[in-house]
Amino acid sequence: MNAVVLDHITKTYEAGKVLAVDDVSLEVAAGELFGLIGPDGAGKTSIFRILTTLLLPDKGAASVNGRDCVKDYKAIRRSVGYMPGRFSLYQDLTVAENLHFFATLFGTTIEANYDLIRDIYEQIKPFSDRRAGKLSGGMKQKLALCCALVHKPEVLFLDEPTTGVDAVSRKEFWEMLRTLKQQGITIVVSTPYMDEAVLCERIALIQGGKIMSVDTPANVIATFPVKLYAVKAANIYRLLTSLREDTAIDSCYAFGEYVHVTFRDDAEPDLQQWQQKLTAQGHEQVEAKKISPSIEDSFIRLMNEKQNGQP
Amino acid sequence: MKQLLVFIRKEFFHVFRDRRTLLIMFGLPVVQIVLFGFALTSEVKNITLTVIDQARDVNSTQIINKIKSSSYFIVDESAINYDAVSTAFKKGTAKCALIFPAGFGNDLQHAGQAQVQILTDGSDPNMAKTVVNYLTSILTAYQQEISPGAQLPYRIIPEQRMLYNEEGNGSLNFIPGVMALVLMLVCTALTSVAVVREKELGTMEILLVSPFKPLLVLLAKAVPYLVLSLANFTLILVLAVFVLHVEVKGSILLLFLVSTLFIIACLSIGLMISNTTNSQQTALLLSMMGMMIPTLIFTGFMFPLENMPWIFQMISYVVPARWYFLIIKAVMLKGLGFSYIWKETAVLLGMTVVALSVALKNFKIRLS
Predict the structure, then answer these.
(1) Which among A157, A212, B2, B200 is placed 20 to 30 Å from A241, CA to CA?
(2) Measuring CA to CA, how many Å separate B84 from each of A2, A262, B34, B52, B81?
(3) Within a 10 A sphere around the Cβ of A184, how many other Cβ atoms?
């Protein structure tokens, strides 16, 4: 059975002027760790709020564990865990008070579901008397996750849980999610970080309120239709400018210290020759290589295709 | 039920851990009582009275001594002539002057009639009138003293009494006003902010995605402020009785009951405001500006409502503090029972029901 179903959901703000979610259909299987990947303003939070019954969609239907998000909102509110994008616990209450409050709110106790949160809570337990507002970013997220989990939800909605969290805490956080998944909880998580996409079982790439692709991370990468090259030079900006003038090149964009390039003709180009050509154009320390695409490359390609009106 | 109790406990934590809220809550009444009681008083006391005695006879000296012995005036006899008085008025160093012409006693004893001149600074009409009244009554008293056998066949001696406030204690009028003002501000501002803060911090999102009934959120928010407001009311009452020596003539129980009703009315208005705003600033501004100004103007403790054009009197009818002010004055100062205030109480009750139902009806179970 599908835990989460979105069926042609459309959501607009300000009386239809701002289109936030554009005809989105999605299915998340029970027990799946599903990622919604997209930049800020892509419509991720709107989708989360529709699923958690906080917003009404303009068009379409959505359901969580077979319950309709509009009609059965009370049942959904009882059975899901939700962690909003912004840290949303009481800053002036201590760690223990926050957890106790949310446990009681859901009609349960910390002890009843302690097994579920033990691994996470043990890490912040030394600070249980500290006010939540005084915790570090990573610890705040752990506390928020504990509070969202304390009533043993069927589905867990995490809206950008790793935004503003350091690299180590992010890694720990994803490990926690994998442990939770093993306990049979369906997890829907959103993130603007493309590198986190590979940690999900399936992902949906979303941009401008539209889903561009839904698949496993491996498949998303595998279906990258052309060969991808990375090239760098001493002056990356000048390199980018001259690559854009080259008619043989289909797309090029800065990617870290490299420029990622795809050619119109998918036949393997002579890298040696290409390097010499670029050096002749006055570029120094030119280095070109063939690379395998990442999720981000797929995302950029899909985005460009959408903008250019290609299929 | 247990959820509600835990929620209410959490609200108390918020209040007690936020020093600013506590300061506003309990500092405001103390500051207002002190201000109104000691600084912003309209009573005239210790006024400097410039006296020029050109007569210097028995009668003028006796009158001056009488004036000196009253608590209202400090007599200044340093001015020697009319010009000096005139200059002092222009500079603002003198507010009132009493001038005895030469031969005052002579005229009084032989012609049976003498004149004095009283000068007051009319740019402060209230003070000027009060000073004239005080001086006139001192002169009248002296007149009767020196001519004990009434020469006039018919005399009307007005026997004056200020009912409910024999000593003319100015505190009596503003204490009910301060009660209305403080309770109004504290209840509406703090409750509206308390709900809006949850929206602003994003915790409302989590509260909504929980089995907790949204309406109970409002109840849980209102209960701590009801308790604290009653504590506040007690504080004002204690200050009034022990610091400003205001006597509570009516039933204390009745006072607490009607105050509870008024507090609930204000809490409902606060909740109503919180439903329509999304930022603490707007909520604070709305409850401060939207509530404080009308309460100050239309309650009747600063400006008499009877003098206002009918349109403003109409507006005053929808200000809850106006009705509460009437009730408190009746119960606390006049010692009247419920049978005298049932109409005002009914109006207040009606307002509470309306505000509360609007607040409950408009409470959003979703975002925006």
Answers:
(1) A212
(2) 99, 100, 37, 10, 6
(3) 9
Distance CA B289, CA B6 (A): 33
Cα distances from B89 to residues A246, B52, B357, in angstroms, run 92, 14, 59
Query: Which of B19, B206, B208 is most worth mutating to test chain A (most A CB atoms within 10 A of its CB)?
Result: B206
Write the ipTM.
Answer: 0.85
Fold for A2-216, please state it: Rossmann fold (3.40.50)
| Beta-sheet pairing, A202-207 with A33-37 | parallel
Among residues B89, B49, B52, the alpha carbon closest in space to that of B69 is found at: B49
* Residue A248 contacts residue A263 (beta carbons within 8 Å): yes
Mean pLDDT of residues grouped by 10 in chain B (368 residues)? 90 89 85 77 75 89 89 82 84 86 87 87 82 87 76 67 68 80 86 89 89 85 91 91 85 94 93 88 87 84 83 90 91 88 94 91 82
Distance from CA of B254 to the nearest CA of A (A): 37
| Mean pLDDT of the A190-203 span | 92
| Token pair listed for A3 | 């835990």
Q: Which of B18, B206, B211 sits opposite A84 (nearest CB)?
A: B206
The tens digit of pLDDT for each residue in A278-295 reads 898 888 889 999 999 999
The answer to whether domain A225-292 has CATH 3.40.50.300 is no
Task: Verify that B174 and B303 share a domain, yes or no.
Answer: yes
Length of chain A: 311
Same domain for B187 and B209, yes or no, is: yes
Chain B nearest CA to A290, separation (Å): 46
Q: Where are the beta strands (DSSP E) in chain B?
A: 47-53, 73-76, 96-100, 117-120
Q: Report the candidate in A301, A148, A306 with the shortest Cα–Cα distance to residue A220.
A: A301
Whether residues B10 and A89 touch (CB distance < 8 A) is answered with no
pTM for this predicted structure: 0.80
What pLDDT is attached to residue B42?
61
Residue B277 sits at the vertex; the CA angle it makes with B271 and B281, to the nearest 5 degrees, is 100
